[in-house]
């Protein structure tokens, strides 16, 4: 939950759902219940941190999709309730678009057009962003998303959920040369990605190991796996820069918090003269401020949604914004 004033973030309260760690992944039913349980209190916290009252708010933005239906519906209904009660303009936000626009929050120098490497738990895409609401998907994963691969590998290693942060930490001290994991579709000639072969290769490496060996090899497995993901992502973004001749590149989504992805992108920036932007870590992982910011952008562009819209779990970035 977040409060934004004139494009500036006043608060960004992220309630991580610890419960999923115990199950090694998101259990949709539990995600919904947890949303329901915390919504009112994080709204209060977000307002208090921003030093604002509900009566100060000029508009309500909410994620309309993509995502888990139950969690989306709960957020949507809560937001509609606020909009009705306070007679406020209301806007349904595309979650992917919000990740992408989050780059503007603390990067004043960012200008259109730019390329966005969007890497989250559900998506891995290279998007050409020509302007507000002008998005073209240049490449996408044909199977797992990058974040999903992190989560699955972490689960195989018993590292909990979400898997990205512990794998990232362990990879820093492991050897990336120890295992030669596949770089899916790296020679495919297009800008698509594939991570399921990598996940399977990690599974086949781990499967024959006893618990002690697995524990000893965890650091090197994390490092070798992460190197394969980062290689795959950065090879394709480099290709996208060459093909489009667009040199402004942004990262977005939870995997954009990955330290090796960031440092490899820094190297690419230096080697190829890119302008590189990535949001602060708190704006990479799912957060309310990015939704509030996207709402502010939407309202500024004269858009709003009817209270009749409903959650859209499978919507794509290239789909229209929810204006009616
Ligand atoms: O954007 P996000 O918070 O939620 C979705 O919209 O999916 O992304 C969550 C994903 C998870 O798969 C998580 O493991 C991954 O982002 N993630 C990371 C890191 N932090 C979060 N992956 C790699 N390295 C990280 N440091
Ligand atoms: Zn997300």
Unreliably modeled segments: none
> At the first level of CATH, what is the class of the largest domain?
Alpha Beta
Class by helix and strand content?
alpha/beta
Strand content: 15-25%
**Portion in helices:** 40-55%
Structure description:
- It is a single chain.
- The chain has helices at residues 19-23, 28-50, 69-85, 95-101, 146-156, 164-171, 196-206, 211-244, 259-272, 281-284, 288-300; strands spanning 2-5, 8-12, 60-65, 90-94, 114-119, 124-131, 134-140, 248-252, 275-277.
- The protein is an alpha/beta fold.
- It has 2 domains: 2-99 and 283-300, Nucleotidyltransferase, domain 5; 111-278, Nucleotidyltransferase, domain 5, CATH 3.30.420.40.
- It has a 5-stranded mixed sheet with strand order 7-6-5-8-9. A two-stranded antiparallel sheet has the order 1-2.
- Zinc ion is lined by residues 95, 99, 120, 253, 286.
Structural descriptors:
11 helices; binds zinc ion; globular; binds 5'-O-[(R)-(carboxyoxy)(hydroxy)phosphoryl]adenosine; 5-stranded mixed beta sheet; two-stranded antiparallel sheet; 324 residues; alpha/beta; 2 domains; Nucleotidyltransferase, domain 5
Describe how the helices and strands are arranged:
Blueprint: E1 2-5, E2 8-12, H1 19-23, H2 28-50, E3 60-65, H3 69-85, E4 90-94, H4 95-101, E5 114-119, E6 124-131, E7 134-140, H5 146-156, H6 164-171, H7 196-206, H8 211-244, E8 248-252, H9 259-272, E9 275-277, H10 281-284, H11 288-300
Helix pairs in contact: 2-3, 4-11, 5-7, 5-8, 6-8, 7-8, 8-9
The structure holds 5'-O-[(R)-(carboxyoxy)(hydroxy)phosphoryl]adenosine and zinc ion (ZN).
């Amino acid at each position: 939950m977040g409060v934004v004033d004139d494009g500036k973030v006043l608060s960004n309260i992220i309630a991580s759902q610890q419960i999923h760690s115990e199950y090694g992944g998101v259990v949709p039913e539990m995600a919904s219940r947890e949303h329901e349980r915390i919504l009112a209190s994080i709204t209060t916290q977000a307002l208090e941190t921003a030093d604002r009252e509900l009566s100060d708010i000029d508009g309500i933005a909410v994620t309309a999709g993509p995502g888990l239906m139950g969690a989306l519906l709960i957020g949507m209904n809560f937001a509609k309730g606020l909009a009705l009660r306070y007679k406020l303009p209301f806007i349904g936000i595309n979650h992917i678009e919000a990740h992408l626009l989050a780059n503007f929050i603390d990067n004043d120098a960012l200008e259109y057009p730019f390329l966005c490497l969007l890497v989250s738990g559900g998506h891995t895409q290279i998007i050409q962003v020509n302007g507000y609401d002008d998005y073209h998907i240049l490449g996408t994963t044909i199977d797992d998303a990058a974040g999903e691969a992190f989560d699955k590998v972490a689960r195989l290693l018993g590292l909990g959920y979400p898997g990205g942060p512990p794998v990232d930490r362990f990879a820093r001290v492991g050897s990336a040369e120890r295992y030669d994991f596949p770089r899916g579709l790296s020679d495919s000639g297009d800008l698509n990605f594939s991570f399921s072969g990598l996940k399977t290769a990690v599974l086949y490496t781990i499967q024959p190991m006893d618990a002690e060996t697995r524990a000893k090899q965890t650091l090197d497995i994390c490092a070798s796996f992460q190197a394969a993901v980062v290689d795959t992502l950065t090879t394709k973004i480099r290709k996208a820069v060459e093909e489009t001749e667009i040199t402004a590149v942004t990262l977005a989504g939870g995997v954009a918090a990955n330290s090796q992805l960031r440092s490899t992108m820094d190297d690419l920036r230096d080697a190829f003269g890119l302008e590189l932007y990535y949001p602060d870590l708190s704006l990479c992982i799912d957060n309310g401020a990015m939704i509030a910011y996207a709402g502010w952008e939407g309202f500024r562009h004269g858009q709003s949604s009817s209270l009749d819209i409903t959650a859209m779990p499978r919507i794509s970035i290239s789909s229209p914004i929810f204006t009616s």
